Amino acid sequence: MTANKLPSSRVHSRLKILIVDDDAQSAGMLVEILAGEGFESAYALSGAAALARLSRRSFDLVILDLVTGKTDGLELLRCLRMQGSIPVLMLIARGDEEDGILGLELGADDYLSKPFRARELFARMRAILRRSDRKGPTEPAPLTLGALTIDAAARSARMEGVPVRLTTAEFLLLEALARSAGRVQSRVTLTYQALARRLEPFDRSIDTHVSNIRRKLCLDPGRGIEIKSLRGHGYVLTVPRSGLEKHLRPAPEPRARNLGLGRDSLG
Predict the structure, then answer these.
(1) What tens digit of pLDDT does each residue of 94-111 get?
(2) Is 235 within 8 Å of 229 (Cβ atoms)?
(3) Would you say the C-alpha torsion 51, 55, 216, 236 has a positive or negative sign?
(4) Which of 110, 132, 154 is the last residue of a domain?
(5) Range of the structural domain that residue 199 is part of
(6) Could you tell me if 116 and 221 lie in one domain?
(7) Are the CB atoms for 245 and 252 separated by under 8 Å?
(8) pLDDT tens figures, 110-149
């Protein structure tokens, strides 16, 4: 990892980063690099210490190093996804892409291979933070496609009225496919829309996120909604004709009844 610092004018004093790495020297170096860019950061040397940290204060992003603590790191990732949707960026060893794919399947937002340049790390962090904060008064109205309802303002998805827990990347990917239902979207386009970055060579992130969405929504031809893969082209979300008709208008409004940092963490 090369400590190339971005211009000091680019500061992120309000953003808090938790680094999880069982190597204190490596974690300390990363804290210093992030401080140089204006991030407030702390680190934990184990999954248990990280959970303790998170129970005492809130963080905007977790950087989880799997290079030296793979088993503990993946268990922490499972716990984080059971408890909420805090963004997670994994650090993996170059050549261990399967670890990255496994992490995405468990709910990580993205991964980065070590060694890397600091500028590359900052870019990946910003992409995750941008999409996790992509909401506001200009969000489009809720969208209904057959049994699927997507509410961008609430960052929520429901299948047959049942809430489905998705990561930020999975939600943005599903929303991108739903709002272009019936039209093929390339991996290049989907990577930009859902991950806020460019598609990289041999990048299987979108494929893994699509697999997660299919599993979580229990999509199959019998339910009328599918996400189909077109080799060499990308993905397309298909719905019955009746569902496409609903796609042309916003979902109905609900009725009156509401359905409702320091280094002292070593240890």
Answers:
(1) 777 788 888 888 888 999
(2) yes
(3) negative
(4) 132
(5) 143-247
(6) no
(7) no
(8) 999 888 889 899 999 998 888 777 544 455 678 998 889 9
